[in-house]
Each structure stands twice: as C-alpha cells, then as structure tokens.
Amino acid sequence: MYLDSAYIAKYYLPEPDAVRVRAAIAEADTLISSSIAIGEMACLLHRQMREGFLTRAEIRQVLEAFLDHVTSGLWTLIPVSDSLLREASFLVSGAPQNTILRAGDAIHLTTARSVGESEIWASDRHLVSAAAHFGLLARTA
Q: What architecture does CATH give domain 5-139?
C-alpha cells in the first residue's frame, strides 16, 4: 500500500478520514512511501502547530513515533535517487497541459509506479487528478 505523506499523517493524527485510513493500513501487507515523507511530515506537523492544532512537544512526539516506525520497518521508505528524479521529469514532461503537479506529488507518483504499486492513497486533488497519467489508481478514504 503506497501512501503519500498526508495519508501517513492520518495514521498519527485525529484528522478527517483517519479512522478509515487506519483500517486500510491495518489490512495492508506493506506500507510504502517516498523518503521525502520524512521532510514532508516535519513540515505538515509544523503547519499543524502554526495553525494551533499541535504544540511543539506534540510535534516532536508524533515525529519521533513516525521515525521510530520507519526504523522498525512499519513504513518502507524508498530513497529518492537521481534515476527516480529523471523518471519523474520524463513523466511530468509528458503530462497533459492542464495537469497541475508539484514536485513532491510527482515524486510520490513516480515512486509508487517504480516499485510496482497500482494504487496510491492520497487526498491532494492535484495528485489524485494526475495519478492516471502515471498509470496509478488514486484511492481516498
């Protein structure tokens, strides 16, 4: 099961759809994401603090839990290599003109594709919209 960073966050935070995401995660054989999830989780948690949803102590607690889970193997994070970035560049350059893609989304989509996943769990509307171009089915809770 490939998840983008926002869906990884739903495992740790009481966000909308978190219960359904956790249920899907519990059924998965493997949990995969890109290694950029480490930086994205830190930024996502910082935004939660900035918007008044988490304290600095809570950010550290959630981030430590996530990193412990990475170390223990709950999450399999795929490194971002030059070849993956080149593949992402190629795929983005062939996307339809009206496709909106951010670099992180393109990396997640390319990573999911490169490890043979057929689906990506995400809620970002631009990533979801672009998934088919990368040969993936976008799943939302």
A: 3-Layer(aba) Sandwich (3.40)
pLDDT at 141: 80
C-beta separation of 120 from 131 below 8 A: yes
Half-sphere exposure of residue 108: CA atoms within 13 angstroms, side-chain side: 33
pLDDT of residue 27: 95
Tell me the two tokens of residue 33.
């994401």
* All residues at 6 or more sequence positions from 19 whose CB lies less than 8 Å from its CB, including other chains: none
Q: Quick one: pLDDT at residue 83? A: 98
**52 dihedral zone (left: phi>0; alpha: psi -120 to 50; beta):** left
Q: What is the pLDDT of residue 106?
A: 97
